[in-house]
Write a structure and sequence with these properties.
mainly beta, 341 residues, 6-stranded antiparallel β-sheet, 38% strand, 27 strands, 2 helices
């Protein structure tokens, strides 16, 4: 199938652009408090950049989002070796994950939404993962200014699955500004601390009394330079928050982000048990993005709804194992509002 961009628009003027290459969210144009529309996701300037996709900008991440320790795991007494593409770890599906391949696509028309349905079959052994995995991801732009992402997957033999979207947001739009003044609320009492190579220790640590407590709305930059070992390891925030330890059937509010300058509000709702909040610490100005804008450190944030990192090696974490006959299913909603009509 040729590479294409599907342009979606709702009655209130919100627009989404979705590519079938890597399932990327190419653009999201949402209004500010004065009704001015701006694109609030970062991305590449040229298609050749999407093909390389070094930063996972807007793409679908799979088969396994986030890090897997030592690029390997054991399932049913068999060891599976993955690409070590993040130091000694495997990250975001390996060398050629779901973000670097074309997907079959078809438009979707519903009474209160329009969208695109993406499909691909990941063969047994792709990037070292067992099982032929049949994946479907549906993006829907709703009349309520929501981008709704519905994921489904089935397998023909036991495997592990953890899918997410990796959009980088700056609610101020395509401007040369950091996100430290954005105000963040995360609906979580605990997070999963990591070691120096960002692999979870297995602990679910209460956020109480730490720089990771965003239960009350707090500026992203308020404590990001605090002398906290976890912030040193992540060079800022690059951690998984514990939203639940069980799978929910309906999306629940995970977080809310507010940009005081524009008045834009992003709410994230999900059925997933975890969410990785990444504050753009490894962005270093080496990438030129949309419109020639240089993406500097902490100029955007990522909210990856997911199962916890390294779950295949962490028996205490919610399981990511998918068996034949089961269906992996998750739904995540990015809802856009303003602080006043």
């Amino acid at each position: 199938q040729p590479v294409a961009i599907y342009k979606l628009k709702n009655p209130s003027g919100m627009e989404a652009e979705i590519s079938n290459w890597g399932g990327a969210v190419v653009a999201l144009r949402v209004p500010d408090r004065n009704g001015r529309f701006e694109d609030v996701v970062r991305g590449y300037q040229h298609f050749s950049d999407f093909q390389r996709d070094p930063g996972f900008y807007g793409t679908i991440v799979g088969r396994f989002a986030n890090r897997i320790n030592n690029a390997s795991f054991v399932l049913n007494n068999e060891r599976y070796e993955l690409a070590a593409n993040n130091g000694s770890n495997s990250i975001h599906g390996g060398d050629r994950g779901f973000n670097r391949v074309p997907w079959a696509a078809q438009p979707v028309y519903l009474p209160n939404a329009r969208g695109v349905r993406l499909k691909r079959v990941s063969p047994h052994g792709e990037e070292g993962y067992p099982g032929t995995l049949s994946v479907e991801v549906q993006y829907l732009l709703t009349d309520a200014n929501e981008l709704r992402i519905e994921y489904r997957a089935t397998t023909d033999r036991p495997t592990v699955v953890n899918l997410t979207n990796h959009s980088y947001f700056n609610l101020a739009g395509q401007v040369d500004a950091d996100i430290l003044g954005h105000v963040l609320m995360i609906n979580a009492d605990a997070f999963t601390p990591v070691n120096e190579i960002l692999i979870p220790t297995g602990e679910l640590r209460p956020v109480e009394g730490t720089p990771f407590d965003f239960r009350s709305p707090t500026a992203i930059g308020a404590r990001i330079e605090a002398s906290d070992e976890q912030l040193v390891f992540g060079k800022g925030y690059d951690h998984n928050w514990v939203l639940a330890t069980n799978r929910r059937t309906e999306p629940q509010l995970a977080c809310r982000v507010f940009d005081p300058g524009s008045g834009r509000v992003l709410e994230v709702l999900t059925t997933e048990p975890g969410m990785q909040f990444y504050s753009g610490n490894f962005m270093n100005g080496s990438m030129v993005g949309k419109g020639g804008l240089v993406y500097k450190r902490r100029s955007s944030f990522v909210l990856e709804t997911q199962h916890f990192p390294d779950s295949p090696n962490q028996p205490g974490f919610p399981s990511t194992v998918l068996q034949p006959g089961e269906t992996y299913a998750q739904t995540t909603v990015y809802r856009f509002l303003t602080d006043r009509p």
